[in-house]
Specification:
CATH topology of the largest domain: Amino acid/polyamine transporter I
Radius of gyration: 32 Å
Number of strands: 8
Helix content: 55-70%
Strand content: 5-15%
CATH architecture of the largest domain: Up-down Bundle
CATH superfamily of the largest domain: Amino acid/polyamine transporter I
Number of domains: 2
Strand order of the largest sheet: 6-5-4-7-8
Number of helices: 25
Shape: elongated
Length: about 650
């Protein structure tokens, strides 16, 4: 009954299953693929500028003026990576992305390292995006402040349910809000620039606040500490690059021509994300947006600390308030669109993680349950695994974006760097095989782009590792290492099992057991036992025994009397049980049989009840379950369950037939 109810709930939430031949109908056109695969990178403008401003603020107000230079450096890296990945999707359109490139060109260890980094980063993408979305929600409704973790948790659950319904259906849900977000940010940027050019642009709500520099930065960005802080701000702003790799992993989900459509989507992503990031950082600098880690101790207003209860708003929220006015309709549109896109940004991970998990499962590095598609042709188990990992992080870090983002970026730049190095080797092999001059020039061009991409991403990776290690990046690296070991162990297990189960000379299909010895387990002489007896006799074993365990002398005597009364032509053996155990005497009996006749096949027939209500399962079949579990560890022993359908099972069967 419980299973039937759960199945009905599943149909309501997920929908009816799709046939495999509907797979072609789930492929995405570019207009849907852009919001599905690029929402993570596009939405990063909601928190990447904040992290740049927050980091620079450690050195005081004067250091914040360097934010446009840091933003420009991030945009250069972003466009370079986009250009590099356009080469990737043409060369490796199968959907393996960075993992496949590293695995093929750099070896299994490199491939598994990239896979570990990507899986961890996908989980962090969901956690960071949802936590940031919850922060924007509390900005719009200050009374909800402090409940970010709860709202982020609900968001992850809802997004997982949407993705369980299928990728195309999820894409249709996400398309409109994503385009509204792009239009609102670009529109706000255009209005803000116009106001700046005409002298009408005001100042942000935090512009009047004085920033108290952290210890060691009293003189601003000077010396080695200042340079280190600039690099740290750059590494935080590099969050804008997360999600770029998702398109290369999702090429199989595009409509034909797949590679061309994926490359076009990447180009659109690069142009739009760069324009949005440039606009936000320019307006943040022009309106003098100030953001700090702890407003209560790092902000001063007219030389005094801020009033208690002050809630710091994100950069986009402050800019929208300055450009459109607090409480205006455009202000709420910008804030709402930003909050929604941050929720949907997690969808990039919900598309990338399950696909990569499926490929790794096919290669034997993850459990095979992740390999197959679910009812709606999505990789359902991968969706659930990603949601579970994100929920753990959100709850553990209380949805604190600043803390979570320190774990971020590392994984994605490991995969960026490895894939670019792999592509350089790929094009090097192609050059040795190609003779046509035009083709050689095209290969050289692609290799040059990937070489530039490798140099830039490797440099950023070093910066990220140096600047973020102590802030929390070590946790992400540790998680990658643990995941690497787990996947390597799973592959070793599958390889050992395959070797153990391989057919050899000793496992010839012509080899037969000497005899078949059937054993019938008897508790009481009832219809299920008689049915099991009939099945055992119908199999014509070499020998058939019935056994019962003497737990209660009176009940055992009653069972023997009933057995004799029916004149059953099979001997019933009574097993002594001085400690009133059922399983142990049966196991000793079976082991003695195996010891006396090691080449015999022993088939144990166990009558079982088929019930229709969940609580009935608790009061039936428990002893049978324990016996079966123990027997499964005995070589040369087979277990035959003989079902007897109780009346309650008929109602459950009718409900299942309806489903």
């Amino acid at each position: 009954m419980v299973l039937t109810i759960l199945n009905a709930v599943k149909r309501v939430l997920v929908g009816r299953p799709f046939r495999t031949d509907r797979m072609a109908h789930t492929l995405l056109p570019k207009r849907i693929a852009l919001p599905v695969f690029a929402s993570d990178a596009l939405s990063s403008v909601a928190y990447a500028p904040d992290e740049i401003l927050l980091t620079l603020a450690l050195a005081g107000v004067s250091a914040v003026a360097f934010s446009p230079l840091v933003g420009l450096a991030v945009m250069v890296v972003l466009l370079t990576v986009v250009a590099s990945y356009r080469q990737n999707v043409h060369a490796y359109p199968s959907g393996g992305g960075d993992y496949e490139i590293a695995n093929v060109n750099l070896g299994k260890h490199a491939g598994l390292t990239v896979a570990s980094a990507l899986l961890v980063d996908y989980v962090l993408t969901v956690a960071v995006s949802m936590s940031s979305a919850a922060t924007y929600l509390t900005t719009a409704i200050p009374s909800l402040h402090g409940q970010q973790a709860a709202f982020a948790t609900v968001g992850v659950v809802i997004l997982a349910l949407v993705n369980l319904r299928g990728i195309k259906e999820a894409g249709s849900v996400f398309a409109v809000p994503t385009y509204i977000f792009m239009a609102s940010i670009l529109g706000m940027t255009a209005v803000g620039i116009f106001q700046a050019l005409t002298g009408q642009l005001g100042q942000a709500p935090s512009a009047a606040f004085t920033i108290v520099p952290a210890d060691g930065f009293d003189e601003g960005l000077v010396g080695l500490a200042g340079a280190f802080l600039l690099l740290r701000a750059f590494s935080s702003g590099a969050a804008a690059l997360t999600g770029v790799e998702a398109i290369s992993n999702g090429v199989p989900n595009f409509r034909k021509p797949k590679s061309k459509n994926a490359a076009t989507t990447l180009l659109l992503l690069g142009i739009i994300a760069s324009a949005m990031l440039a606009g936000i950082i320019y307006l943040a600098n022009a309106t003098k947006v100030h953001i700090v880690l702890d407003p209560a101790t790092e902000f001063l207003l007219n030389g005094s600390p801020l009033p208690e209860g002050y809630i710091q708003s994100p950069a986009i929220s402050q800019i929208a308030q300055t450009v459109f006015g607090p409480g205006s309709i455009p202000f709420y549109i910008v804030v709402a669109a930003t909050g929604v896109i941050l929720v949907f940004a997690s969808n990039t991970a919900f598309n990338g993680f399950p696909v990569l998990g499926s490929i790794l499962a096919q290669d034997g590095y993850l459990p095979r349950q992740l390999r197959t598609r679910g009812d709606r042709l999505a990789f359902s188990n991968g969706v659930l695994a990603l949601a579970a990992g994100a929920l753990v992080l959100i709850i553990s870090f209380n949805a604190d974006v600043t803390k979570l983002i320190q774990l971020y970026i590392v994984g994605v730049f490991i995969s960026f760097t490895a894939s670019q190095l792999g592509m350089i080797r790929h094009w090097g092999r192609e050059l040795k095989l190609v003779r046509d001059k035009a083709v050689r020039l095209r290969v050289i061009k692609s290799r040059t782009i990937n070489m530039i991409g490798f140099g830039m991403t490797a440099l950023v990776l070093v910066i990220v590792l140096i600047t973020k290690f102590e802030q929390g990046a070590w946790i992400a690296l540790l998680a990658m290492f643990v995941l690497f070991l787990i996947m390597w162990s799973i592959r070793a297990h599958y390889d050992n099992v395959a070797k153990e189960l391989a057919v050899d000379e000793d496992s010839s299909p012509r080899a037969l057991p000497t005899r078949v010895h059937a054993v019938l387990l008897v508790s009481h002489v009832r219809k299920p036992v008689l049915r099991a007896l009939a099945y055992a006799r119908a199999s014509r074993p070499s020998r058939l025994d019935a056994i019962t365990v003497d737990i209660n002398e009176e009940e055992t005597a009653h069972t023997l009397a009933d057995w004799e009364k029916l004149d059953i032509p099979v001997p019933l053996t009574v097993l002594a049980s001085p400690y009133r155990e059922t399983v142990t005497p049966i196991m000793e009996y079976i082991k003695n049989m195996r010891r006396d006749s090691p080449r015999d096949l022993i088939v144990v027939y166990i009558p079982e009840y088929v019930v229709g209500k969940w609580w009935e399962q608790l009061v039936h079949n428990q002893t049978a379950l324990r016996i079966k579990t123990r027997l499964h560890f005995e070589p040369g022993v087979m277990v035959a369950s003989v079902p007897w359908q109780l009346k309650s099972s008929e109602e459950a069967k009718k409900l299942q037939d309806i489903q």
